[in-house]
């Protein structure tokens, strides 16, 4: 049981790492924060496509990682 949970934790962590690394950056540097920061905050929401899928995968991976970590700690310590 412990080995199975540890393997699931390793898979969840790899999914989380990959999904975070594949996402595009939010900032355009210092000039983007001064000139176009409000546009990124309030306009042009990327609700469809590649970014949305990666955001959902990242959220699911993070929740899985936290839950599996807590389960492993509580059951085996």
Brief synopsis:
The chain is mainly alpha-helical. The chain is built from 4 helices and no strands.
Shape estimate: elongated
Number of helices: 4
- The helix-strand sequence is HHHH
The biggest beta sheet reads:
none
Tell how many strands the DSSP assignment holds. 0
Question: What is the alpha-carbon Rg in Å?
Answer: 17 Å
Report the portion of residues in β strands. Answer: under 5%
Could you give the distance between the termini? 14 Å
Uncertain runs with pLDDT below 50, 5 residues or more?
Answer: none
Helix content: over 70%
Structural class: mainly alpha
Describe the overall structure.
78% of the residues lie in helices and 0% in strands. The chain has 77 residues and is mostly helical. It is elongated, with a radius of gyration of 17 Å.
Q: Any descriptors?
A:
single chain, 77 residues, mainly alpha, 4 helices
Topology, please?
Blueprint: H1 2-22, H2 30-35, H3 37-42, H4 50-76
